[in-house]
Amino acid sequence: MTLNVRAAEIKVLFHRIAPVYDALNNRISLGQHGIWKLMTVKWAEPKPEDLGLDLCCGSGDLALLLGRKIGTGGGVIGVDFAAGQLAIARTRANKYPWLDFNWIEGDVLDLPFPDNHFDCATMGYGLRNVTDIPRCLRELYRVLKPGAKAAILDFHRPSNPALRRFQQWYLDKVVVPAARSFNLTSEYAYIAPSVERFPTGSEQVKLAQSAGFGAATHYPIVNGMMGVLVVTKLSRPRHPRWRGQRRKEG
After folding, report:
1. What does the alpha-carbon distance between residue 110 and residue 3 come to, in Å, rounded to a whole number?
2. Backbone angles phi, psi at 158, to 5 degrees
3. CB neighbours (10 Å) of residue 105?
4. How far apart are CA 91 and CA 103, in angstroms?
5. pTM for the whole thing?
6. Which of 18, 87, 212, 229 could be 141's S-S partner, Cβ–Cβ 3.0 to 4.6 Å?
7. From CA 40, how far away is CA 96, in angstroms rounded?
8. For the packed helices 5-17 and 21-28, what is the interaxial angle rounded to 10 degrees?
9. Largest alpha-carbon pair distance within the chain?
10. Contact of 192 with 171, CB cutoff 8 Å
C-alpha cells in the first residue's frame, strides 16, 4: 500500500488518537454520535446473513452495529489503514464471539476485494479524510453487489449562515478544548478546515452518481451540521461506461 504525504499524515494522526478516540468522540458529540451511527446502519439496510463492509472502520463502532443487525449467518469486514484503531476494534469484537468480524489494514482507495462482493456497507467520518473522494466512491461502487446500499456519515456544512457560525463556534470552543484535555489539540483542530473543504450534500450526490450509483440521497441531520449520504448500486449500471468494467488483478 503506497500512501501520498497527506494520506500518510492522516494515517499517523488516527493511529495516535486511537487510545482515546471513542471517549473523546462521546464527549464532543454530547453522547449523540451513537444515535447517528444507528441511523446510518439502518439506512444501509443490512439483512440477516449479509456480508457487510465498513470503510474507515476505526475502532469498530459502525462495524459492530452492522454485525449485530446481520447476525450469526453473515459477517462484517472492517477496513482501516490505522493499525492502532484496528487493534481496538479487534478487542471490542471479542465481546461478540458469536458474530463474524474480520479486520483488515488496507487502503479504501484500492480495496482488496473482488467486484460485486458485499451486500451492504457503511462509512463513518472517513470520506472527508480520504485523499481522493471520487476514487473512494468508485471503489465502493465496484465491491457492492447490484441492489446493495451504502450509508456514509460525516460532518456537513449547514446552508444557514447562523448555523454555520454556531458550528464553527462549537468546533473552536467545545471540540478543540475537549481535545486539549487529552493533549490532542492539533489533532482535532484539523476538523474545521476539513469540513470547509468537504463537498456539500448536493455535491456528494453528484459525485456518487458520477461513480455509477443509480440512486443517491443526502440526508442532513442535526440541523444540517451532520449528514448521511445513502447510495444504491442498481442492478443495471447507470452509465454505459461501467458495463463490463472490471478491476485489474495483480
Report:
1. 11
2. -65, 150
3. 14
4. 11
5. 0.84
6. 212
7. 21
8. 90
9. 52
10. yes
